[in-house]
């Protein structure tokens, strides 16, 4: 059965008597360990979808079932725990803490999990051996994104949610980052959901979900996904 299921999910924004449906009665399923790419034009509802799945935002109606539980029913405490333990976030602009080193940024996750975290080891796994003691400003954009991936992986989350993870990178660096995410997905059986408007990723996805105007336009299951390149 699916690890993640959206059942008739809507997210509405009201201003006066105008209602904007950022997500409009959307349903989808994602399996454990899938490398999922969500494509769609600006304003389609991609970030909204990811924020709802990550517990950063709440649905107006519908169910979001994760490992058998409807997270829409969660109160603040349960939602905070869910975000901390189950979800790793990767953002366009890395969101690293500037006055902490790469290693300290990764080990920060110790505070919110019960896992022993060795920052140096995780940084090595994302190709950053020897960069432990550098501050974010001393690293390139691609290196900073690797640190943020290491930080997300440190929690050993069930899912990695990535919002335009290559949006601030040149295309060669972007490919290396996407390839790292694909490898981590397949090696660790972590479910990876990437939101992008870059259609180059289409062939590399296990599942490609196109959304438009808050609705599913098309879902494609790729039996033979290519390596990102
Ligand atoms: P995408 O990520 O695909 O660009 P978003 O999920 O950011 O799309 O936005 C979907 C729609 O919801 C857009 O029309 C956007 O303007 C609107 N929207 C998103 N967040 C808010 C908000 N906080 N208040 C009002 N409208 C919003
Ligand atoms: P993206 O398309 O990558 O999601 P945006 O620039 O559309 O980025 O949105 C950035 C942030 O602004 C989001 O967190 C979203 O919730 C908020 N936002 C987007 N559209 C609106 C809007 N029309 N009114 C208020 N907030 C918005």
UniProtKB/TrEMBL annotation:
Which GO molecular function terms does the record list? ATP binding; ATP hydrolysis activity; transmembrane transporter activity
Q: Cellular component GO terms, alphabetically?
A: membrane protein complex
Tagged with keyword Ribosomal protein: no
Pfam families membership: ABC_tran (PF00005)
Cross-referenced SUPFAM superfamilies: P-loop containing nucleoside triphosphate hydrolases
| UniProt keyword annotations, A-Z | ATP-binding, Nucleotide-binding, Transport
Q: What PROSITE patterns does its record include?
A: ABC_TRANSPORTER_1, ABC_TRANSPORTER_2
Coiled-coil zones: none
Where is the ABC transporter domain positioned along the sequence? Answer: 4-229
Please state which protein family the record places this protein in: Belongs to the ABC transporter superfamily.
Q: Which protein, by its recorded name, is this? A: ABC transporter ATP-binding protein
